[in-house]
């Protein structure tokens, strides 16, 4: 398997779903379950970092005073009188 930092978001999510499925099934020996849990935590953190990177790249278009401007994702529209979707 590729180094976990080289995985795409989709690959990491698929691997995480596989781990969750194995752990939910309940017939994994304790030591293997601990290893799976630790790997799952790393994958979860990787997915979180990838989502944060994408979030920073997204800009939302907002109309203010008749002008169209861009604001970084997560900007509070209510402060400027805009609406939140």
UniProtKB/TrEMBL annotation:
It is an enzyme of class 3 (hydrolase). GO terms for molecular function: exodeoxyribonuclease VII activity. Keywords: Cytoplasm, Exonuclease, Hydrolase, Nuclease. Its EC number is 3.1.11.6. It comes from the Bacteria. Coiled coil: none annotated. It is found in: Cytoplasm. Its main location: cytoplasm. InterPro entries: Exonuc_VII_S, Exonuc_VII_ssu_sf. It catalyses: Exonucleolytic cleavage in either 5'- to 3'- or 3'- to 5'-direction to yield nucleoside 5'-phosphates. Residues 63-85 are annotated as: Disordered. The keyword Cytoplasm applies. Residues 76-85 have a biased composition (Acidic residues). Belongs to the XseB family. Bidirectionally degrades single-stranded DNA into large acid-insoluble oligonucleotides, which are then degraded further into small acid-soluble oligonucleotides. Heterooligomer composed of large and small subunits. HAMAP family: Exonuc_7_S. This is Exodeoxyribonuclease 7 small subunit.
């Amino acid at each position: 398997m590729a180094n976990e930092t080289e995985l795409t978001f989709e690959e990491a999510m698929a691997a995480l779903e596989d781990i969750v499925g194995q752990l939910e099934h309940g017939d994994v020996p304790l030591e293997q379950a601990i290893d799976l849990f630790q790997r799952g935590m790393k994958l979860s953190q990787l997915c979180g970092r990838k989502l944060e990177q994408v979030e920073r790249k997204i800009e939302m278009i907002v109309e203010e005073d008749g002008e169209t401007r861009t604001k970084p994702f997560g900007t509070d529209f209510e402060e400027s009188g805009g609406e939140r979707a």
